[in-house]
């Protein structure tokens, strides 16, 4: 059974240290069990993201969707920022390295992004099906208020992420409760 711990900085974020079973043939990891995250809505869709070295994805957030990330190749630097107005940890940030031996639960309303210093493949589960982009919101990766200490000054960004607004420019109705 993996060790699942609550974030010390952001309410609702949980990090699972996955058990690795290895022998001469390779490795086995159990990557997800609903019972590891009591009270979470059921995950109903799976996705995959492949990122080349130098890519930064985010910061993204959702009003109606939680994510569970599991890296299957590479390593990424994760940045999180709590945008939820009613959260006891509103305004908190957290960073860490995500490896294939870890799973990460991100509740709705927490902005999330990652930097791939090497080629990386991330699979993730979500508790809502894709809605055409209506719940795909963003915060500037280099927002001064979020102050994520990314390990890169000039990452490769998507056109969408280049347009993400600063926190001070996000209307209240686009911020999570």
What this model shows, in words?
The protein has 177 residues and is mainly β. Helices cover 2% and strands 40% of the residues. The strands form three sheets. Strands 1-2-10-7-12-5 form a six-stranded antiparallel β-sheet, with no helix packed on it. The termini are far apart.
Enumerate the strands of the largest sheet in spatial order, edge to edge or round the barrel. Answer: 1-2-10-7-12-5
Largest sheet features: 6 strands, antiparallel
Rg (CA only): 16 Å
- Strand tally is 13
State the share of residues found in helices, binned by percent: under 10%
What separation lies between the terminal Cα atoms? Answer: 34 Å
Which structural category do the helix and sheet elements fall into?
Answer: mainly beta
Average pLDDT: 96
Q: Name the helix and strand elements from N-terminus to C-terminus, one letter apiece.
A: EEEEEEEEEEEEEH
Give start-end ranges of low-pLDDT stretches: none
Number of separate helices:
1
Gross geometry: globular
Strand content: 35-45%
């Amino acid at each position: 059974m993996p060790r699942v711990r609550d974030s010390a900085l952001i309410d609702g974020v949980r990090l699972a240290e996955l058990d690795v079973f290895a022998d001469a043939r390779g490795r086995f990891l159990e990557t997800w069990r609903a019972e590891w995250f009591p009270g979470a809505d059921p995950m109903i869709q799976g996705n995959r993201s492949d990122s080349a070295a130098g890519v930064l994805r985010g910061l993204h957030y959702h009003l109606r969707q939680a994510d569970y990330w599991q890296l299957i190749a590479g390593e990424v630097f994760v940045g999180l920022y709590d945008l939820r107005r009613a959260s006891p940890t509103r305004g908190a940030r957290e960073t860490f390295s995500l490896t294939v031996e870890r799973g990460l639960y991100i509740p709705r309303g927490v902005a999330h992004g990652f930097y791939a210093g090497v080629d990386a493949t991330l699979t993730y589960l979500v508790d809502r099906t894709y809605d055409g982009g209506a719940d795909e919101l963003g915060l500037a990766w280099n927002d001064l208020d979020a102050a994520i200490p990314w390990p890169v000054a000039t990452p490769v960004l998507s056109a969408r992420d280049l347009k993400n607004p600063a926190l001070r420019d996000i209307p209240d109705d686009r911020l999570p409760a």
